[in-house]
């Protein structure tokens, strides 16, 4: 059964969720479909930098100016997802002076507050900076949690009436008489919150307009509609360290290069990145040398990184786009601007718009412009309010109380829960039930997890990104099973077990790129706890053959009784 | 005055303690040097010998399956007799505190994850819970103890086809404990039978716990709790609960901090003291001195001061990757004290496989040894004539997948300790 909708947004990343929020706030009926969980694509695989614009102040000033403007907006509307760490562009011996001066001038031209520090002053801010750092430019870079930001956008869109459908993969774009009429999606397990093991269903969703916000996958989606979108997916690696070696974003001040940024993020630091074009955004090599290069090159800026513990590495794909015939060969030369492709104008295919390119920091601005465009098509005349209205969780964040006493939580746990939850803390943490810590690495309590499960269903990876549970040193070894048990008894044992297996596999995947030293030791401990103590690797409930229990010891008293019945003495030679 | 012993054992886990005990039986003057708390606190307290073959077949009778293990496996190196001898020593040390010596068959013990696990010896506290025992079972979890969800574990055991009808219930642990109290806090409350305020007035923690569980019994013939039933007084705690509930009570082994693991460690520590083994704990061995092919001494770091420990024979029982007896960096895998050769692929991306529970090469990392348990260098020669290795530091076995960790520690600890003791 089709359902009459006005706009369908494809893609549950920052851009898609931002568009859904904007459209719904303007009174448009919206459905968003995403093939995985929210942030499944590029948004969930970035280093969490809230750009000041300094990075683009030389090469791409238009982007730089957009960044600083949106940086200021996000600090206001999404305060509970932002940490204003500040950032440094540091110059090492051999990094060109001219570029340093160009960067400084560029920042000022773009309205980015920029201040020159001596090497000594920079080391006063970041004691672990290399001794030979000569000077630095301080800019208002920050760290932002892309998961919470994206989820907050989706939640607010839902509050304004949008339908957000995750684990719903578009299998076809419906084209009739030269016009896009909607899409067909396959639900991983039926509509609504994800439930494992249910048979999949398909659904036809009709719309007056379809927005292709699938980023690096825009070309594939375009192909389903019969149009060509020349997106150029470019992969980048990020390596997660187990603690904050720096509390400020540290960038290398040189024209361009791989491995030139360290972003502090909650309890961790993220090293990034590379920029390498790939054919298929779903299938590209994840290679050892990329991880080694992150550590070796960034150790030149922050030497202790060479001895530090890494937790995992992950790769993301950028949705780079360049208009046809530009002929750029190096992906680092491709603009970070975004492009709105009106397929009616471009391809004679009405009813669909594609958005490609752009940056996470400017997701809201992109959403605003696309929404303006779509509203123009639909004849909706309503102003954009997304720059002014705080996202859920960021209302009155300044008046939060100390939750330590209120909820009987120890200080660091109360503080961290409150920081994550923002103004939602009151509602989430006020529970009459005991609220023990489930993930000790990241200080996540049961109430916070249960709130996330209410939202995410049985997809524990979706719960993970909402809470950070299982993202610390142990990478789920000590807590994945505790998280899974919260699904029971609302969900049956088999579903719970499948959810645990999914989460554990996902946590394992990224750790593979960090398996030496402390993290290899941790991996062996996790292996021992899950395989030895819990015997999850030979789980009899998951194996085909049934166990013949009577071949095993049933205890000394029972076996003595058996022996007596059988008339056979127990002769052990003693 | 110089520290001079016949045998110096490095490492305080099950393998090291077994080596030291066995060497002392030869009349040797034995010293055991250990650094951090042993990984027994991580372990379940179950003593596995072999639960699965390398092909993943469930093993009902481990001794029959040992002969089929491949060359290089620690059991193949020491032989089946050493496994029996090691278990025999274990049985003597633990006495009535462990069961399983009445049969050669493995027992299947319920795990806190709701599966069953094959093991050769199990603590007395776990004995009433065996999965092959068909008596109706109630599992009890505590609201704030997130590592054990009793209703889920019961459903999981049911899915595993256990013969016993099994139910689970979650109750508050009686008394006003913090929501994030650790298992040791519950154990100590039961050890001391602390006074607890309940609706019915002040009562002891043991009685209060039984009172909380009693309404849920409903015909169950045995009751399983997470392994928090006392630390020093665990037998008394269990006996008190059994008396009040009128049914058998057992513990389900848990992860760290594992009380059954800690209780086992105490039994062995007492045996070491009885055997006159000198124990030096809390400082790492950081270096050694060798004269040609023999080790003369190891150096212990005490706040920057290096203290030599001389001996005729040395046993390396420092554990594997978890215990840091095997260490690694991006370039390779090492044994950090003597730099014994650790076979491993050069490319660290060949240290693992892609599936979380796949056949990981890293799980087998450790030193290779000859039949006398002497570590071998890259060319197959003996590293040092008077150095033997035992337990997790040995390579060639994925103890987690095989469920063979304790058995390997006991068998190789026994063999290394005997050989070292005989050599002096």
Automatic annotation (TrEMBL), chain B:
<protein>
    <submittedName>
        <fullName>Anaerobic glycerol-3-phosphate dehydrogenase subunit B</fullName>
        <ecNumber>1.1.5.3</ecNumber>
    </submittedName>
</protein>
<dbReference type="InterPro" id="IPR036188">
    <property type="entry name" value="FAD/NAD-bd_sf"/>
</dbReference>
<dbReference type="GO" id="GO:0004368">
    <property type="term" value="F:glycerol-3-phosphate dehydrogenase (quinone) activity"/>
</dbReference>
<dbReference type="InterPro" id="IPR050315">
    <property type="entry name" value="FAD-oxidoreductase_2"/>
</dbReference>
<dbReference type="InterPro" id="IPR009158">
    <property type="entry name" value="G3P_DH_GlpB_su"/>
</dbReference>
<keyword id="KW-0560">Oxidoreductase</keyword>
<keyword id="KW-0288">FMN</keyword>
<dbReference type="GO" id="GO:0009331">
    <property type="term" value="C:glycerol-3-phosphate dehydrogenase (FAD) complex"/>
</dbReference>
<dbReference type="InterPro" id="IPR003953">
    <property type="entry name" value="FAD-dep_OxRdtase_2_FAD-bd"/>
</dbReference>
<dbReference type="Pfam" id="PF00890">
    <property type="entry name" value="FAD_binding_2"/>
</dbReference>
<feature type="domain" description="FAD-dependent oxidoreductase 2 FAD-binding">
    <location>
        <begin position="6"/>
        <end position="408"/>
    </location>
</feature>
<keyword id="KW-0285">Flavoprotein</keyword>
């Amino acid at each position: 059964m089709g359902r009459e909708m006005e706009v369908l947004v494809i893609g549950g990343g920052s851009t898609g969720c931002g568009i859904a929020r904007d459209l719904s706030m303007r009174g448009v009926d919206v459905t968003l479909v995403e093939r995985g969980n929210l942030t499944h694509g590029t948004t969930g695989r970035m280093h969490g930098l809230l750009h000041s614009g300094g990075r683009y102040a030389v090469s791409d000033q238009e982007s730089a100016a957009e960044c600083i403007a949106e940086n200021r907006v996000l600090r206001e509307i999404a305060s509970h997802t932002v940490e204003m760490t500040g950032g440094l562009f540091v110059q090492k011996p051999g990094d060109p002076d001219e570029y340093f001066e160009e960067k400084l001038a560029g920042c000022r031209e773009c309205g980015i507050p920029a201040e020159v520090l001596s090497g000594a002053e920079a080391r006063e801010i970041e004691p672990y900076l290399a001794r030979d750092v000569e000077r630095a430019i301080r800019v208002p870079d920050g760290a932002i949690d892309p998961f919470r930001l994206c989820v907050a956008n989706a939640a607010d869109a839902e509050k304004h009436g949008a339908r957000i459908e995750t684990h719903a993969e578009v299998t076809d774009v419906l084209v009739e008489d030269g016009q896009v009429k909607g899409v067909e999606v396959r639900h991983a397990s039926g509509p609504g919150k994800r439930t494992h093991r249910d048979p999949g269903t398909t659904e036809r969703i009709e719309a007056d307009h379809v927005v292709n916000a699938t980023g690096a996958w825009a070309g594939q989606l375009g192909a389903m509609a019969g149009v060509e979108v020349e997106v150029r997916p470019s992969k980048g690696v990020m390596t997660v360290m187990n603690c904050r070696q720096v509390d400020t974003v540290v960038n290398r001040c040189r024209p361009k290069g791989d491995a030139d940024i360290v972003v502090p993020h909650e309890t961790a630091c993220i090293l990034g990145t590379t920029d390498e074009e790939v054919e298929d955004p779903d299938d590209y090599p994840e290679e050892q040398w990329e991880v080694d290069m992150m550590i070796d090159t960034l150790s030149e800026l922050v030497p202790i990184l060479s001895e530090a513990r890494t937790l995992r590495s992950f790769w993301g794909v950028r949705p780079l786009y360049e208009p046809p015939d530009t002929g750029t060969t190096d992906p680092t030369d491709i603009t970070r601007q975004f492009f709105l492709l009106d397929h009616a104008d471009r391809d004679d295919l009405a009813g669909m718009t594609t958005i490609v390119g752009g940056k996470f920091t400017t997701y809201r601005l992109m959403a605003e412009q696309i929404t303006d465009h779509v509203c123009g098509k639909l004849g909706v005349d309503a102003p954009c309010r997304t720059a002014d209205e705080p996202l859920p969780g960021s209302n009155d964040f300044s008046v939060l109380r100390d939750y330590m006493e209120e909820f009987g939580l120890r200080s660091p746990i109360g503080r961290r829960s409150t920081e994550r939850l923002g103004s939602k803390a009151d509602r989430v943490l006020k529970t009459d039930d005991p609220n023990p810590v489930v993930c000790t690495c990241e200080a996540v309590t049961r109430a916070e997890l249960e709130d996330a499960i209410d939202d995410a269903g049985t997809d524990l990876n979706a719960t993970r990104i909402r809470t950070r549970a299982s993202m610390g040193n142990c990478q789920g070894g000590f807590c994945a099973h505790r998280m899974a048990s919260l699904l029971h008894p609302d969900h049956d044992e088999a579903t719970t077990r499948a959810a645990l297996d999914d989460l554990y596999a996902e946590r394992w995947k990224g750790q593979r790129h960090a398996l030496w030293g402390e993290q290899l030791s941790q991996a062996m401990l996790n292996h021992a706890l899950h395989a030895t103590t819990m015997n999850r690797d030979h789980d009899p409930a998951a194996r085909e053959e049934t166990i013949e229990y009577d071949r095993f010891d049933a205890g000394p008293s029972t076996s003595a009784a058996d022996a007596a019945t059988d008339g056979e003495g127990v002769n052990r030679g003693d | 005055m110089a520290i001079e012993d016949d045998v110096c054992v490095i490492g305080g886990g099950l393998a090291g303690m077994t080596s030291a005990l066995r060497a002392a039986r030869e009349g040797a003057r034995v010293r055991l040097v250990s650094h951090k708390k042993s990984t027994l606190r991580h372990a379940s307290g179950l003593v596995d010998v072999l639960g699965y073959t390398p092909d993943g077949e469930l093993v009902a009778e481990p001794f029959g399956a040992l002969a089929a293990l491949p060359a290089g496996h620690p059991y193949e190196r020491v032989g089946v007799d050493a496994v029996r001898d090691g278990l025999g020593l274990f049985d003597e040390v633990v006495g009535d505190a462990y069961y399983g010596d009445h049969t050669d068959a493995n027992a299947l013990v319920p795990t806190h994850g709701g599966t069953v696990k094959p093991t050769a010896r199990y603590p007395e506290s776990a004995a009433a819970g065996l999965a092959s025992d068909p008596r109706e079972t109630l599992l009890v979890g505590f609201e704030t103890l997130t590592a054990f969800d009793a209703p889920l574990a019961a459903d999981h055991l049911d899915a595993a086809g256990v013969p016993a009808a099994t139910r689970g219930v979650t109750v508050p642990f009686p008394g006003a404990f913090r929501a994030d109290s650790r298992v040791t806090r519950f154990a100590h409350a039961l050890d001391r039978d602390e006074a607890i305020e309940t609706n019915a007035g002040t009562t002891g923690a043991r009685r209060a716990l039984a009172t909380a569980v009693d309404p849920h019994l409903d015909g169950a013939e045995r009751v399983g709790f997470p392994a928090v039933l006392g630390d020093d007084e665990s037998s008394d705690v269990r006996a008190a609960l059994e008396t009040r509930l009128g049914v058998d009570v057992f513990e389900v082994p848990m992860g760290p901090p594992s009380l059954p693991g800690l209780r086992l460690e105490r039994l062995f520590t007492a045996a070491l003291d009885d055997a006159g083994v000198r124990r030096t704990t809390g400082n790492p061995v950081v270096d050694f001195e060798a004269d040609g092919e023999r080790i003369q001494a190891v150096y212990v770091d005490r706040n920057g001061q290096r203290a030599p420990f001389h001996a005729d024979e040395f046993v390396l029982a420092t554990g594997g990757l978890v215990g840091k007896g095997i260490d690694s960096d991006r370039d390779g895998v090492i044994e950090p004290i003597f730099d014994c050769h650790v076979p491993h692929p050069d490319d660290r991306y060949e240290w693992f496989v892609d599936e979380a529970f796949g056949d990981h090469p890293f799980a087998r990392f450790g030193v290779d040894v000859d039949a006398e348990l002497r570590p071998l260098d890259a060319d197959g020669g003996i590293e040092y004539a008077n150095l033997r290795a035992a337990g997790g530091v040995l390579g060639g076995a994925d103890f987690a997948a095989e469920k063979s960790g304790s058995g390997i520690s006991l068998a190789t600890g026994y063999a290394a300790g005997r050989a070292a003791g005989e050599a002096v």
